[in-house]
Specification:
Largest sheet: 2 strands, antiparallel
Strand content: 15-25%
Shape: elongated
Number of helices: 4
Number of strands: 2
Helix content: 40-55%
Strand order of the largest sheet: 1-2
Length: 80
Amino acid sequence: MAPQGKFRLNKKTVAHIAKYDKGLGAALDAVANPAAENAGATVDEYVTDRQVRGIYGKKEDQAKHGAVSKAFGRLGLRLR
């Protein structure tokens, strides 16, 4: 056990959680699904070294109106 007040990061455990934890997936869905619905887009769920949700809308809507960006903004989030 680590001494009091010390924290030791276990990267393998964090990687496992990022890739397989159902709660994390549910949290991603809770953000991605409303944003996609607001933008008239779809959500693509996939796994790389971590769980990912991609939001895909019409190119024209994003280019002309920023539809996906605005949908995230309405949820109080920023895209980077």
